[in-house]
Amino acid sequence: MSSAAEQEAVDTAAMESVTSVESPAPHVNGQWSGPVILGRESALRTVTRLGPPVWPGSSHPLGARFRTGPDGSAGTNFALWAQGAEAVEVCLFDAEGAETRCALTELTHEIWHGFLPGVRPGQRYGFRVHGRWDPWTGARFNPAKLLLDPYARAVDGDFRLPPEVYGHVRDWPQQYIADTVRDDRDSAPHVPKGVVVHDDDDWADDVRPKTPWADSVIYELHVRGFTMRHPGVPEELRGTYAGLAHPAAVDHLVKLGVTAVELLPVHQFAHEDHLLRRGLRNYWGYNSIGYFAPHAGYSSSGTAGQQVGEFKRMVRALHAAGIEVILDVVYNHTAEAGELGPTLSLRGTDNRGYYRLQSDQRRYADYTGCGNTLHAGRPHVLRLITDSLRYWVTEMGVDGFRFDLAAALARSMHDVDMLSPFLAVIAQDPVLRRVKLIAEPWDVGSGGYQVGAFPPLWTEWNDRYRDAVRDFWRGALPDVRDLGYRLSGSSDLYAWGGRRPYASVNFVTAHDGFTLRDLVSYERKHNEANGEAGRDGTNDNRSWNCGVEGDPPEGTEPRIGALRRRQLRNLLTTLLLSTGVPMLVAGDEFGRTQGGNNNAYCQDNETGWVDWSLLEDPAWRELFALTSRLVALRQEHPVLRRRAFFSGRPRGADGLRDLAWFTPAGTEMTERDWYAPAAALGMYLSGRDIPGRDDRGRQIDDDSFLALLHAGDRPVSWVLPGAPWAAGYELVLDTAREDQAAPPGTRHRGGETLTVPARSVLLLRVAD
């Protein structure tokens, strides 16, 4: 055939592939009796040009992979799992947005595939998937919607949410059946495209820090927010991967002494419609749509694949400084939301195959509070997740993952199951079982709270630590039983199945909630800027404002400011002296505030960004100095980062135990003391005969310490324990002091009575 005839045949085939418009079906017995399809005319406006030849290619690996073809020709193999599809087209886009559609005719084990010679890195593409439109049975195929490849390595373009992006007619007058009315308007002009990327990096020049869990100190940060206001980062690099890799940013992390950064989501994400309508954006990024693609908005070098190289260079820079990279990942749901959400990727690829549906298959099972839940119990969904995880480890260089709402991934049919396919696959995977795995051990579904239940290999965000420490320092703990467990590694939660104290990731604050400064400045949330009339964000803040809500006018209430800074010192000292893995939040070490907003997920502005100008204030510089000092103290002393739980039993003829608890009277606590109201607790940590050996098999010995924690509002007289615990003590730290410099040579005898200031921590080293 001539080229004109070929083009006519292609156009005819494209027209025949579009389902004809049906008249609105009548109601029958109160039910909608059939689908309605709108937009045929706009769907046909797309001009389909004759594409390159499509060779059979391979069903493995999934996604778009540039490689050499069977005759030595360079090209790209495309493969898409789409179980219920009737046809799949890969759509190529040139610089002007013109589209070329190429049918993938090979089908192997529910994977549609083909090799396109001549398609090279930088090529933008998407998929169109043909199949049944029957929302009543969960089928939501709509070839008018260009779909992002679930395995796309890079994404170019912004997600906007005009009506054309929805698989159904979003503004259908009868909203209760709107999701059943198919919209055939073309979404291609309104959605981002995947980008073919060439993976050619072997990481031969990279050295991973491989920090042991017990030695880790995690620093949670937002790539954009951490660098947007940093004066040492060039303006053109602020808010980007390159900005985080800049020496000025890395230097702060090194001075602080942290061993790992935990990055808020960097998978490609989309903004929700309700935020865009209010002129806001999803800042945190917990709305993933591309599990292989670094978020393009954080790239300074371009979005046609350059973001991949920029991310890798960031990882290398952090590794060179001895800092691991942990990603906060969101595999529990996607940005497609519920049945009224947009059709961006998985919904149009195979809705029933990827998502958990209710018995009424129009509806989604929502264990996440975000409208949908990925069905991680299914083999192809597990493959998507584990392929993504392995990719970020082997090809992007990361060292671990924090799983958002991990309980949702651990559900089998309905209930959370610690023998679920997801946890079983991770446990046996030769790559993933060797990286750091952190669970947020809950979801919003029934039975979703699973703190302490995840199996060995996993660590967990321990919110019981957060609550106990907050309550103690605000004077709300009825007794000190719970605090004792939290300070010593939470053995009540984790001393089973071979788990260790570092199974507990201890934190007082996280991205979600008040900053540390706001925790001592506000008793209620101030989220008005979010535009949700105060409905968003928790009301259970467990905070104390020290007598004044918010920051008083500058120069007034100096007593309040001094008390708040003391409380910050108490909270940070408690966190970094506790057994387990401490997690700090970016800016807490120098007094960052969000003005009382405890849910700044949509505040991509000064509210959500780290304010580096605070370090110009001597008071906040002192807080940073204290935090650095505490991190260094922790790294210097293995007794503060134990690899095994305390036994509490005598370890020698003198009756000295590895852990002991004391009252201000200098006596060991009895069962009655644990249950009595108290605002003070003494913790003795013995550095003698610490379980475990060093790298050369030698016994680990360390100094012993006595920590005195006093949350009361008046000073207390404290009798320091004498023999066999100590003949004397040397003062290391006193949080009541503003300048943080402990008096040199300050020593106290065992049995001596010491005055502990109100609301303070004293740390003393045993000096024989």
Number of domains: 3
For the largest beta sheet, what order do the strands appear in spatially? 16-17-20-21-22-23-24-25
Shape: elongated
CATH fold-level label of the largest domain: TIM Barrel
Radius of gyration: 29 Å
Fraction of residues in H or I helices: 10-25%
- Computed structural class: alpha/beta
Q: Compute the number of strand runs.
A: 35
Mean pLDDT: 91
Q: What share of residues are in beta strands?
A: 15-25%
Our count of helices gives: 18
Q: Uncertain spans, ≥5 residues at pLDDT below 50? A: 1-47
CATH class label of the largest domain: Alpha Beta
Could you tell me how far the N terminus lies from the C terminus, measured between alpha carbons in angstroms? 97 Å
Q: Which architecture of the largest domain per CATH? A: Alpha-Beta Barrel
CATH superfamily of the largest domain: Glycosidases
Largest sheet: 8 strands, parallel, barrel
Overview of the structural elements:
There is one protein chain. This protein has 768 residues and is of the alpha/beta class. The protein has 3 domains: 49-196, Sandwich (Immunoglobulin-like), CATH 2.60.40; 218-515, Alpha-Beta Barrel (TIM Barrel); 647-767, Sandwich (Immunoglobulin-like), CATH 2.60.40.1180. The chain contains 18 helices and 35 strands. Helix 16 packs parallel to helix 17. It is elongated, with a radius of gyration of 29 Å. The model is unreliable at 1-47 (pLDDT under 50). Keywords: Glycosidase, Hydrolase. Residues 527-539 have a biased composition (Basic and acidic residues). One of its GO terms (molecular function) is amylo-alpha-1,6-glucosidase activity. Belongs to the glycosyl hydrolase 13 family.
